[in-house]
Amino acid sequence: MASILVVCTGNVCRSPAAEGFLRRALSQRLGADAPEVASAGTAGWDGSGATHEAVRASAERGIDIEAHRARVLTAEQIAGADLIVTMAREHTAAVIAIDRAAASRTFALKQLVRVLETSPSPSSGLDASVRRAAFARAGYEGKANDEDVEDPLGEPLDTYRAMASELEDWTERLAEALFGPAASAAGSGA
To answer: 122: closest CA among 22, 31, 29?
Structure first.
């Protein structure tokens, strides 16, 4: 089965929330055929739970990450992922430093969405979408000051709420760019 790995720094804020939002968005489109989604951190706090604020902000949007346990990013996780979605450019660089062969399937979330949205062809499957994105990225003129999902660690709950809102939007857009609209949206003519 296909798999997507979401990467941030500590694997206690952004990536667990993004994992949950992306899993939901993919399940709404593909049901039991949705790719597996996991997360890890470049400096993961191995075994730690998600922060209280990340748990709360995600729960307010219908995502339960209470049972999440942080994992440190490994070469094996990278090798096993069909697509690696990072929360910031620094995480993309960290993935590639571990496994240079992963460069063609590793993208910052916002970069990936923007690249796929400018070269639409959803529902062609994960592998084809990753290849399309890698090819399209060569001519991509990114918004360098807006490619990262900011780290909310140590910030107030409202910052985590903003992060959760941002991740919900971007992961929904990613799922749509990869696989088309959710079944309910497709059925309603939206």
So the answer is: 29
* Burial letters 51-80, b for 16+ CB under 10 A, else e: bebbbbbbeeeebebeebebbebeeebbee
| pLDDT of residue 142 exceeding 90 | no
Count how many residues are written for the chain. Answer: 190
* Domains in the chain, CATH or no CATH each: 3-183 (3.40.50.2300)
Q: What is the DSSP string of 61-96?
A: TT---TT-B--B--HHHHHH-SEEEESSHHHHHHHH
Sheet of 106-108: strand order equals 36-41, 3-8, 83-86, 106-108
Q: What's this model's pTM, rounded to 2 decimal places?
A: 0.92
**For the ranges 129-143, 155-169, 172-186, the one whose mean pLDDT is highest:** 155-169
Are the C-beta atoms of residues 92 and 86 closer than 8 Å to each other?
Answer: yes
61 vs 120, residue with greater confidence: 61
